[in-house]
Design goal:
- The chain is α/β, with parallel strands linked by helices.
- It has two domains: 302 residues, Aminopeptidase; 111 residues, Alpha-Beta Plaits.
- The chain has 14 helices and 15 strands.
- Strands 1, 2, 3, 4, 5, 6, 13, 14 and 15 form a nine-stranded mixed β-sheet that branches. Strands 9-11-7-12 form a four-stranded antiparallel β-sheet, with helices on one face. A two-stranded antiparallel sheet has the order 8-10.
- Helix 1 crosses helix 3, helix 9 packs antiparallel against helix 10 and helix 11 crosses helix 14.
- The radius of gyration is 23 Å and the shape is globular.
- The two termini are 34 Å apart.
- The structure holds glyoxylic acid (GLV) and manganese (II) ion (MN) (2 copies).
- The site of one manganese (II) ion has 4 residues, from loops.
């Protein structure tokens, strides 16, 4: 990994981190919170920001910040903030998160080259554990910052190897006893704009390179633990088993059925662990994690209740038990309309569209969760207007090594971000 000098393009910045956190088993990248790879990326970000003369800091929730502060009274104005995250899902793509971070760094170069004198501070943020890939709660850094998740709930989290968040944080010099809501920091933010690779096919189908986001589905995660009777695979007749994998499998099917039956519903079992996990062993327990999403929280909860009922019924039929626990839940978020309109106007002038390959600027809903949605829906604090820019992904695939963005589109994204930040900072 190299530290680039000020002035490289978005693709050049992505290439600088292309070898960090590659997952040789799964393919793609595994950059989990506080892992060696993620710590290297954090250091790299801080070095890149410092090389640009930005002031850097790590907040009480392990989020990274870099500030470009103008002099005089303007330094006291509320800041415009951009950024995203550097952690990944297991075996994820190169763009989900890093594209927004490197675009933010490249934008500082573009704004400086254009001679912009910002009339308020510009902040770049790297949120911690956006994917929940290690401790299970997505957007943990922004949830703690906004008070959406309490420090006690965060400190109770463990990773798949049983390490607590507090221990893992301490190992890398982060003091988890400082976790907690930071209303003063939020109060210094005028608005937040996150650029992100698109995670679906919207822009491919429309033949456009860039879009604005309209909304994010309600979503959450549930843990189901099925317990039965561990036994011998050969010596136990088929009619005397209490195999918890059976109700787990039926729950996977029930999730598919329930989500397929409604509009904008999703239910996914992406992680399932039989215990003790031997080919010739009937499992004694199965842990199953389900991600569920929908147009709003009540509809999502109703779908989860239907799946939970199917899980209980299937468990009883096999002489097993199931316990179900909600790990996190977020309501649907509609991004700030006034900010979206402002960005739309800035990006659709003839000058902004010239040479971009775009004939318009679509507005797309997404099923993916983002820190921008957590900030935009923060409870009990001044609501921060948030917006998102999406960059075309020609595979339409994300959370997979197949996720992609063409260099030209990454540059277009960086230019679009520079255009909107120029307007917001002027
Ligand atoms: C994050 O990318 C999520 O939507 O789970
Ligand atoms: Mn992301
Ligand atoms: Mn993601």
């Amino acid at each position: 990994m190299t530290t680039t000098t000020a002035g490289p393009t978005v693709p050049a910045l992505l290439r600088a981190i292309a070898d960090t956190g590659r997952d040789r088993t799964r393919g793609g990248y595994s950059r989990h919170l506080f892992s060696d790879a993620e710590m290297d990326l954090r250091e790299w970000f801080l070095a890149e920001a410092t090389a640009r003369g930005l002031e850097t800091e790590i907040d009480r929730n392990a989020n990274l910040w870099a500030w470009w502060r103008p002099g005089g009274a303007a330094a006291q104005e509320r800041a415009i903030v951009t950024g995203s995250h550097l952690d990944s899902v297991p075996g994820g793509g190169a763009f989900d998160g890093p594209l927004g971070v490197v675009s933010a760094l490249a934008t500082v170069d573009l704004l400086r080259a254009a001679g912009l004198q910002p009339r308020r501070p510009l902040g770049i943020v790297v949120f911690a554990e956006e994917e929940g890939g290690r401790f299970g709660v997505a957007c943990l850094g922004s949830r703690l910052l906004t008070g959406t998740t309490t420090p006690d709930a965060a400190l109770a989290l463990t990773d798949p190897d049983g390490n607590t968040l507090a221990e893992s944080a301490a190992r890398v010099g982060v003091d988890a006893t400082r976790f907690g809501a930071d209303p003063d920091r939020l109060d210094r933010i005028a608005c937040f704009v996150e650029l992100h690779v698109e995670q679906g096919r919207g822009l491919i189908d429309l033949g456009q390179p860039i879009a604005l986001a309209s909304s994010v589905l309600a979503h959450g995660r549930w843990h189901l633990r099925f317990t039965g009777e561990g036994n011998h695979a050969g010596a136990t007749p088929m009619d005397s088993r209490h195999d918890p994998l059976l109700p787990a499998a039926q729950t996977v099917l029930a999730a598919r059925r329930a989500a397929a039956a409604g509009e904008s519903l999703r239910a996914t079992v992406g992680r399932l662990r039989p215990h003790p996990g031997g080919t010739n062993v009937i499992a004694s327990a199965v842990d199953l994690w389900m991600d569920a999403r929908g147009p709003d929280a009540p509809v999502t909860q109703a779908m989860v209740a239907e799946i939970a009922a199917a899980a209980h019924e299937a468990a009883a039929a096999e002489g097993c038990r199931v316990e179900i626990r909600e790990e996190s839940a977020s309501g649907a978020v509609h991004f700030d309309l006034a900010l979206r309109d402002q960005l739309h106007s800035a990006l659709t002038t003839p000058a902004a569209l010239a040479g971009t390959g775009a004939t318009g600027l679509p507005v797309l809903a997404t099923g993916a969760g983002h820190d921008a949605a957590i900030l935009g829906a923060a409870p009990g604090t001044r609501r921060i207007p948030t917006a998102m820019l999406f960059v075309r992904n020609p595979t339409g695939v994300s959370h997979s090594p197949a996720e992609f963005a063409e260099d030209d589109d990454c540059e277009r994204g960086g230019t679009a971000l520079a255009t909107v930040l120029t307007q917001l900072l002027s």
